[in-house]
Amino acid sequence: MGNHSQEHENDVNDPRIFLAGLLIGSMMGGLAGAGAMLLLAPQSGKRTRAKIQQKSMELRDKTTDAVETMEDAVAQAGVKARHIRAGVREQAKELEQRGQELFDEQKERFSTLVESGKEAVQGSRA
Question: What residue numbers bound the domain in which 49 lies?
Answer without folding.
Answer: 2-125
